[in-house]
Amino acid sequence: xxxxxxxxxxxxxxxxxxxxxxxxxxxxxxxxxxxxVSVAGSLYVPICVGRIIDCILGPGQVxxxxxxxxxxxxxxxxGVTALCxxxxxxxxxxxxxQVVHDVRAQAFAxxxxxxxxxxxxHPVGEIVSRLIADVDQFADGLxxxxxxxxxxxxxILGTLAFMISIRPLIALAVVVLTPLSFxxxxxxxxxxxxxxxxxxxxxxxxxxFLDEMLGSQKLVKAFGREARSVEDxxxxxxxxxxxxxxxxxxxxxxxxxxxxxxxxxxAVVVLTGALLCVSTAGTGSVFTVGALSALLSYAxxxxxxxxxxxxxxxxxxxxxxxAGRIFALLEETSEQPDSPDAKVLTDCKGCVSLRDVRFSYxxxxxxxxxxxxxxxxxxxxxxVGPTGCGKTTLINLLMRFYDADGGSISVDGTDVRDxxxxxxxxxxxxxxxxxxxxxxxxxxxxxxxxxxxxxDEIIAACKQAHAWSxxxxxxxxxxxxxxxxGGSLSQGQKQLLCIARVMLCLPPMLILDEATSSIxxxxxxxxxxxxxxxMQGRTSFIVAHxxxxxxxxxxxxVMNRGRVIEIGTHETLLAQDGFYAKLYNSQFAx
Amino acid sequence: xxxxFVYLKEYRKExxxxxxxxxxxxxxxxxxxxxxxxxxxxxxxxxxHGYIVRMSLLLVGFGLAGLAxxxxxxxxxxxxxxxxxxxxxxxxxxxVQTFSHRTLDTIGISTLITRMTSDMxxxxxxxxxxxxxxxxxxxxxFGAMLMAFTIDAKAALWFLAVIPALSLVVFGIMxxxxxxxxxxxxxxxxxLGSARENLNGVRVLRAFRRExxxxxxxxxxxxxxxxxxxxxxxxxxxxxxxxxVIIDLAVLGLLRTGSLRVNAGLLTQGAVVALYHYMGQILxxxxxxxxxxxxxxxxxxxxxxxxxxxxxxxxxTVEPELPKGDPSLRVELRDAGIRYHGxxxxxLSGIDLRVKPGQTVGLIGGxxxxxxxxxSLIPRFYTATSGAVFVDGTDVRAxxxxxLRQKIxxxxxxxxxxxxxxxxxxxxxxxxxxxDEILTAASLxxxxxxxxxxxxxxxxxxxxxxxxxGGQRQRLTIARALVRRPEILILDDSASAxxxxxxxxxxxxxxxxxxxxxxxxxxxxxxxxxxxxxxxxLDDGKAVGLGTHDELLRSCPVYREIYDxxxxxxxxxxxxR
Lengths: 590, 577
Known about the structure:
The complex is a heterodimer. Chain A is an alpha/beta fold.
């Protein structure tokens, strides 16, 4: 998923990256120094070898003393080079992984204070991919890429300098010829690009087909379409074969072609070098065989960093884009922090009042307007409406997951914005229909609201929630490990766990969501019982689906399309003969 | 893995030619230092300009030939790798078609999709690289050594020492770091899981004010990941410096031996240069080989996963003697039950049901009571594990599955349509249906207005039928089953998204069908099943009532409870209607 806006303002991104690197600047400076030394060292070795070769001329013409000197020098240079190589490798690792660690920690901390407005509008997968994939890509591309780029450039410049110092003319030949391989690689890449486009289209077609057909494989069998669907698949498969062959073949030409250019460069160095050797023999500036050998080593490795660099640059751009996305996340506006003089809600009675509350997710589309509601301590409020009617909106406002745009919500006479979020949320017990359980033991899931609960307390809560009978029968009881989202537990069991979780810390106010259909009758009865135990003497907001719940409520809030359209008791609302009456008749009547 | 190679058979020629041309190219590379040695020893030593020029041209010629060889090699290996994977994909897809519902449940659809896509791509890359490089690198390494021996056996002994030492370092580091990388991957998965879980549960976590605790537990996982990354980093950072030291020490040894041999007149200066260059080639190739092996390991792992799916065979149980059913009945269940694979309890047990041709049967009960399971026994999507199911008096196990399913129009609970036109979708029911027949089926299914709204039979349906509402999709899936003019029509809670009026109209239309099918209506609503000839009430996998609406109201408490919850408003008057 690449977005257009990533390309802009890389300057700002770079500055922010530097800020991230600041704590490690000493390591970075040292790493750059060490890598420069190691590049210089590895370039110096071929020259030393060349000098030794010049001391090995023929029978009786071998200068052992000078050879020994050069060998010592090589040994020393190699020792230093190897040490430096090891040192900068280790330092880069350290910096890279530490920066990744820091960024992830920052991003995760940010997630804890991001407003729901952001979280609800960004798919979980997208945010996770920023935290994981983007951070990795950023680290690989930018930090490891940086060292590759740096050593690459130093190698090229160093090689050039050494070559010029040996023989400027030959260096010139190499400099003129090498870009050819560059050009050739670019040429191939740009021309194979369209084959790749066609290939990825064909691949996408096939994946879409598989998604659809394998996803409904049982239906395919029900209609006896097995043979037909293989035929359809084969058509896509053949197309993919044809286009892949082109894409893979043409793109694999890059290596042979650059290698060919390389061998031409090599041949030119041999030719000019050998001719120079011959023509300078006996003159003042002899071009020796050793020098030729050194140049040949260089010619062999000179093009390599070029190819690496061109790879690094694309990765670099990609990494910048990733960094941009990470910074965008880090710089999102956080939830408005609690005001410094916010009060802690204690001994909550459970009187809730909403006055002229106005709210909408999207300014262009108003949702709740002028909502007034006063709830006395211990009252039950039923929220009724078709699916998607906006019951979560109300929960969002009560729990302060979102703040109202206008008007005020107060608990026990204090505006919720003057209370700490922590104490407000601690006063509500919430059981949603979309149960959420974490991977871990049953116990870990239950003690979310009361981490220090004893086993006795937990078991008591489970019994009250009618959850103990099934927990008891699990292989390891409370210590049974369940996967994310409850794993093998049934929907009803999951909901009972969520109820037990709230039962354990039982706050003075409740937000409950009745299950609709996915629960068997017996469990549903248990859930109902658990709900009514909880509701004893507590202010409760219930998203209601059952007739009995609705009829027993002190007040019914009728919602449709995100708005509260009617408020009243069952009788007054029926008498009103409005939306509620219609809903009631269609859902509960023939 | 071995079984996969069957699909490579067709490309035997390419699999030989690809590596062969690659080796030809590599051998040219091996000759280059020899040419350079000749230039030094003859061209330079005797100031032979012509020779120097000829040898340089020879090098260019080598380059050209190498280019031709490697392009040929790339062509063959691309052809073989892609052809192989195409065959394999076909084989796997066709194999999946033979899977029973039970097997599909066990393996899981998402697994199959990964096998068909990303695993296949990985195998393709792996095979392509293998064909191109797996032989080349060892060939160059040993070739370089052999060339060294042809130059001078004594100096070449250094190669004999260096190759094992380098291999030890390169492969040793690889072996040590692969499990470490796996650990890193595990820790990364933990970090990813932690982040995803936190986001999925953000409402609950914030409601319970767990932000700080969450941050601490994420921090632990994050630090564990970093620790592991740094550990593996430390190991792999050793590779370059150690190989550098080994190679350069060997170069020194080579120069030492070389200088002694030259002094004694046993070796030339050019030969020493050539030996030095061979030494350089070895290192490059060994590192390439190590990277290649990592890639190939991955591909092999993917290949094994594909193989595992190909190895799944449907158990062929031959029933010794199948019981005979009552031939006057269209569908009969005799003490039928099923326990799903890996499940501890029966999903359905002891069901007896006798259905005459043309009858309508209602199936009612709460979720998980076994209604859908029961109807899936009739087309033998699942095989009953106890008792027997008969269609037209013959045990379904004796039916050819496709002939059996041909008689049945099945409307699944989840209304799924496919990318294509409405006509293509409805033709699933019967490939040979004419437009008129399709339109009739659509109107019976109350779907005429869907066609009108979406542009008739040529109207486009997006993937999964995304561009249609739930009710529209449901009516089209009903039409799809009716196009077949089935003898048995099964509606598995398929009218749930329809409003009461449409539901009623649909049931009326079904009663009017001229071919008089036997109909199974699964529903949670008593209003849907009340006019059925017989209604089977299920609770927790067992039959708790069988009869007509009125009989059941009198005799079956479960049925009455369901009815009351939907119609009677809990003992109150019926004024609301």
